[in-house]
Amino acid sequence: MKVITTKEFLNNFANQSPSEDTDRKIDQIVLEIIQQVRHSGDKALYEYTEKFDEVQLDQLAVTEEEFREADKQVSDSFRQALREAQQNIAEFHQNQMEKSWFVNKAPGVMLGQKVTPLEKVGVYIPGGKAAYPSSVLMNVIPARLAGVETVVITTPPQPDGSINPHVLVAAKEAGVDKVYKVGGAQAVAALAYGTETIPKTAKIVGPGNAFVARAKKWVYGDVAIDMIAGPSEICILADDTASPAYIAADLLSQAEHDEDARAICVTTSKSMADQVISEVRQQAAKLERKEIIDQSIEQHGSIILATNKEEAIHVVNTIAPEHLELMMENPQEELQYIKNAGAIFLGAYAPEPLGDYFAGPNHTLPTSGTAAFASPLGVYDFIKKSSIIQYSREALMQAASPIQTLAETEGLTAHSNAIQVRKDDSDAKA
Amino acid sequence: MKVITTKEFLNNFANQSPSEDTDRKIDQIVLEIIQQVRHSGDKALYEYTEKFDEVQLDQLAVTEEEFREADKQVSDSFRQALREAQQNIAEFHQNQMEKSWFVNKAPGVMLGQKVTPLEKVGVYIPGGKAAYPSSVLMNVIPARLAGVETVVITTPPQPDGSINPHVLVAAKEAGVDKVYKVGGAQAVAALAYGTETIPKTAKIVGPGNAFVARAKKWVYGDVAIDMIAGPSEICILADDTASPAYIAADLLSQAEHDEDARAICVTTSKSMADQVISEVRQQAAKLERKEIIDQSIEQHGSIILATNKEEAIHVVNTIAPEHLELMMENPQEELQYIKNAGAIFLGAYAPEPLGDYFAGPNHTLPTSGTAAFASPLGVYDFIKKSSIIQYSREALMQAASPIQTLAETEGLTAHSNAIQVRKDDSDAKA
């Protein structure tokens, strides 16, 4: 883990080039898969699942029997923990519910905004080595709260054709309508365009590998997507009062995700930097996922030494981290200076895993600096708005002149005609 | 203008294939432009402006002198109409303002959501044949209300190097910081990555041609974008009480936009269908933009004859129109059945141009069926949210067991360690 100055960091950052045009090879594969799925539907899904997941499936949808089987395989403590988390997540997201509204702006003038849930939503849950029941909760609960009619999951099957039981139990608890055994770009294509078995959805959410991410980018516009997730990151802003052991533990919890994960500590204290490095080394040695952690810390871990607090906060806002921990004496006071962050953890007892699993806010967060313009996943991701306009004849006549002036300025005379036809209608003048 | 049945419409609709992989040629040009702008900055902008707009510019930014000059060139009636529209737009969008919130969920537990405006926003305003001061207002006002610090416009210069004075006056009135004389994909690239003159922005909004739309799709992810706009459409749902003359006028106002615009009337009344067709023919003959209108109506205009109201409403929700007019006896009652529409105009005196220019709701709306998942442009497009989590030591200790259970289920043991380190810290237990 290296220590760098603010200046070094900012120089580096400015020269980082977004990955935009480096994914041509993946794109070729992904576009071919999308085309095949659009063309051949389920048949393509079975073929790709055989090719990529090495499983021959009899059917795509998980059966009730499989759900019952999964239920027997999970521990009571897991089920209990899941339910506590579920309740916290639901409670937090209820604060995000939006209502339709109407105003009577003037006599004869009613304006408003109608809120409608999306009709169908697809959630992608990664499979492979790990299972992520927490992602099931985080993606499904806000959709359900929004009032989405149909929520389905796609997730790649394990080599024996089954789905991880923890994922299935979480899906059942969260009230998912169907779980389909299909992963990769083919799952995204199916959710975007529909097949015989899998419904075309209005929005696709959930994390995935590079193929899933590029497929989401390609179908974007035909359907909505949550975001294109990049590597995950944590940034800890620490003053002298922070515990180096806590900082190290939290950096390591981020680093274990994968080799690309970024763990960054920003501080003005040289001795804090040294202590954190020493703690990282000691704690990492004892952790199961040491190999991943070592690589991640080696390649992407850093401690940025700022000359003062203002500079430190500027660095944080420039990074726009997915997770930001404020390990400071008065974290609530510092909050006002934070412009860009997905989730902000205040003080010594809000470690990132509290937010990943349990506290209630969503763990699907904007990564790779996109917190500068994007938000955590929320109920607002599963609704859309329609504007409402109603005028009386009298109100429209009063507005006629400015409307016609503006329409004619833009050369849109048929727009002006739509007003004129109503002005000229002597029958209506009664 | 042809009359088709619901069944014919739905069959047609199901076979419509999204354009996703037909834009390769445009993509090649657009990707080359993006790369050049990222590499050469302003120099590339001057070169592309010379190549595409056939103007050699001395500087990119519109000067104060040019703003003053524009001010002299617009009429008082235009300025007056613009200000009335501006006030209505601001008043409507004020209803969309969102506040940060916090809850004390339990002793020692504080959760919340912080709302922060985007820092810099770029608005693309088309140039060429037409000028769109109304688009300036519709894009800039919600950004300003949201609290965006810097709002800049890019718009292609006219052959003499100037910008349409109505656009400049609207920009000044709406409080834009800078207007740059650059259009096309090069403008999008500049706003996405920054050049010596043009700031890198967090989000790019505003309409544009196919090159602008594809460029927005390509930079999406590195910056936010509003949407990828397709052809514009109107759908009028009319019962027996509607005026065929009004319907025709409103269909034509949509048709004059361009040859790809879609004007659709859905009705259960055969005689209404016949009368609308006759009115369209009569009114179109007298309109200035007759040529565009004829092409648009010929290619994309249709009247869908439904067998009953439920079927008619199903058609509307399937189209998910950008603009929907409910020309019905009790339009407010029908509103409950409308799931997908960008803006909904109720009754005989809410013609689309009222919404395009004046009433207050935004005229940047989801096109081409994207109203199934997207919303009108609004204040919510110019803010982002951060989750807030704060726990006391005691509250974290109570939550420790479920967090560790879930982390270990997912195999993320360093996550569990971040809790354990705090549990084991005997100093803190005091």
UniProtKB/TrEMBL annotation, chains A, B:
Task: Report the sequence similarity comment from the record.
Answer: Belongs to the histidinol dehydrogenase family.
What exactly does this protein do?
A: Catalyzes the sequential NAD-dependent oxidations of L-histidinol to L-histidinaldehyde and then to L-histidine.
Name the source organism.
Answer: Virgibacillus xinjiangensis
- Which positions bind NAD(+)? 124, 186, 209
Instruction: Tell me which CDD domains the record gives.
Output: Histidinol_dh
Per the UniProt record, the lineage of the source organism begins with: Bacteria, Bacillati, Bacillota, Bacilli, Bacillales
Which pathway does this chain act in? Amino-acid biosynthesis; L-histidine biosynthesis; L-histidine from 5-phospho-alpha-D-ribose 1-diphosphate: step 9/9
Residue sites binding Zn(2+) per the record:
254, 257, 356, 415
In the UniProt record, what gene is named as encoding this protein?
Answer: hisD
Give the cofactor binding note. Binds 1 zinc ion per subunit.
HAMAP family, alphabetized? HisD (MF_01024)
Q: Which cofactor does it need?
A: Zn(2+)
Q: What is this protein called?
A: Histidinol dehydrogenase
Q: Does the record's keyword annotation contain Membrane?
A: no
For the protein in the UniProt heading, the enzyme class is oxidoreductase
